[in-house]
Write a structure and sequence with these properties.
Number of strands: 5
Helix content: 10-25%
Strand order of the largest sheet: 4-3-2-1-5
Strand content: 25-35%
Length: about 120
């Protein structure tokens, strides 16, 4: 059974107190987080400065539209069946999303993660 996941990418204008190095990233892809659909609803997993925050969200009819309407880029995906074994995980928003989804890639930035998730 696959578990639905939604990855949300935020641009500079949507990120509060973005770090100085955010100016080096693609403008529309400065931060990301993952939403997991569970039997009790949606769970939001987000990391800032290496600290993971877990939040249970209220029920949404269409969570993709909810974040898209706020100006975020949203990718509807699933949790990969097999976890990715990696000896090294960077403690960033991208590293956390990759770990939660079981993605094995060398991408380090939100833009690289987006390109990985949307590849044909």
């Amino acid at each position: 059974m696959t578990q639905r996941a939604v990855v949300v990418f935020l641009g500079r204008e949507l990120v509060d107190s973005a770090a100085w190095w955010g100016r080096l990233l693609n403008p529309g892809f400065v931060h990301c987080f993952v939403l997991l659909q569970t039997s009790i609803g949606w769970i939001k997993l987000e990391t800032r400065y290496g600290v993971v925050k877990v939040t249970q969200l209220d029920e949404f009819d269409d969570i993709v539209s909810h974040y898209s309407n706020q100006g975020a880029t949203v990718v509807d995906t699933t949790v990969y069946a097999q976890s990715a074994l990696s000896p090294f995980v960077v403690r960033t928003c991208v590293g956390m999303v990759k770990a939660m989804l079981g993605i094995k890639s060398f991408g380090l930035t939100p833009w690289q993660l987006y390109k990985y998730l949307t590849r044909g």
